[in-house]
Design goal:
This protein is of the alpha+beta class. The protein has two domains: 55 residues, no CATH class; 206 residues, no CATH class. 27% of the residues lie in helices and 38% in strands. The chain contains six helices and 15 strands. The longest helix has 26 residues. The C terminus is likely disordered.
């Protein structure tokens, strides 16, 4: 049989019932609560504990024996105590086994140096922004993606217009030409990527995701050792509308390349799309987050080709100092100029 111990919501010490006031009191911090309040606190704590247990899992570190706790999406990481790489194999089973992975090519030291070189270009970042303590927080993570190949059948007919202008003397001449076209056939659009996680800043990651797909290799858990990784949280059905939209954009671009007119009028415009192949892949990213004045800034670097994108905070103290230095320099120049004039 389990027992219940009520904890003080204010300080966490044990609560006892006070017969004189008919309330529950904390002897440590002096707080006092009604029985109804304590029951409400206890019920809330139980709900939060159940949610935590549902959202996390404990794993045994084979190196030091400690228990490593992780959420439902993380599939590899580090032991908090001995820092040994840990791979949560049950997160990489069945449908969650990736098909391919692009391994890390940029080391942590190289990623840190690229970050420092990037920061040097900006003069108004806070002091210590590129410190060793800050850079130590840079994390290598494999981000999940869905990769698809698509087949499109196209049957179009219409007319295209081309307008050109020329000037002769004071007169301008406009020429209108119209061309008929008809196209029918198959189009193949391959390697369309869509991020498969709602746990990361997609706009940031999309800025540095231009990996070379021919660098993909068959998945092995060995590539995850020493890095964090996430399994997908967005299923095929979740991303299919995004995929359909991207496929339509690619096909339209291919058609416009084939039918290259300034304006087009369609008599027949039939397009059908079908995804012919799905692959679940992992792409390497270095991520660094930075807190400054209650705002979080994020820097991302592609772990395969070194492309980077990020946001930088501005130190207004440095801005004011720089402004005063410019003002002082201008004043000195004016005084010196005045001395020469006189």
């Amino acid at each position: 049989m389990s027992s219940a111990i009520h904890k003080c919501p204010s300080c966490g010490a044990n609560l006892t019932f006070d017969a004189a006031s008919a309330n529950v009191a904390c002897a440590y911090c002096g707080s006092e609560f009604s029985v109804a309040e304590v029951e409400s606190f206890h019920a809330k704590a139980e709900r939060e504990e159940k949610q935590y247990q549902a959202d996390t899992h404990g794993y045994h570190c084979d190196n030091c024996g400690a228990e490593v706790v992780t959420d439902n999406e993380t599939s590899s990481g580090f032991c908090y105590y001995c820092h040994s790489p840990v791979i949560f194999s049950d997160k990489l089973s069945g449908e969650f086994i990736p098909d391919y992975v692009i391994p890390f090519k940029i080391s942590k030291e190289q990623a840190q140096q690229k970050f420092k070189d990037w920061v040097k270009k900006f003069k108004l970042v806070p002091k210590g922004f590129a410190s060793s303590e800050h850079l130590a927080k840079m994390t290598g993570i494999y981000v999940p993606y869905w990769l698809v190949d698509a087949h499109a059948t196209v049957d179009i007919k219409g007319s295209g217009q081309v307008v050109s202008k020329r000037r002769s003397g004071n007169k301008e001449y406009t020429t209108y030409k119209e061309y008929s076209f008809e196209r029918k056939g198959d189009m193949f659009v391959n390697h369309i990527k869509t991020i498969a996680s709602d746990k990361v800043d997609q706009s940031l990651i999309n800025s540095v995701e231009s990996n070379t797909i021919d660098k993909l290799v068959p998945f092995s858990t060995a590539y995850l050792s020493g890095y964090f990784s996430q399994r997908y949280t967005l299923s095929r059905d979740d991303v299919k509308p995004i995929k359909d939209s991207k496929i339509a954009e690619y096909v339209d671009a291919l058609i416009r390349r084939e039918v290259d007119y300034q304006s087009i009028q369609y008599e027949r415009n039939v397009r059908n799309y079908k995804i012919s192949n799905w692959s679940y892949i992992l792409l390497p990213m270095w991520i660094l987050t930075y807190q400054f004045e209650d705002k979080t800034y994020v820097y991302a670097l592609n772990g395969e080709n070194g492309e980077s994108f990020g946001q930088l905070p501005i130190s207004y103290a440095s801005l004011i100092k720089r402004g005063l230095m410019i003002l002082a320099g201008t004043a000195a120049a004016l005084l010196l100029g005045g001395a020469f004039i006189w």
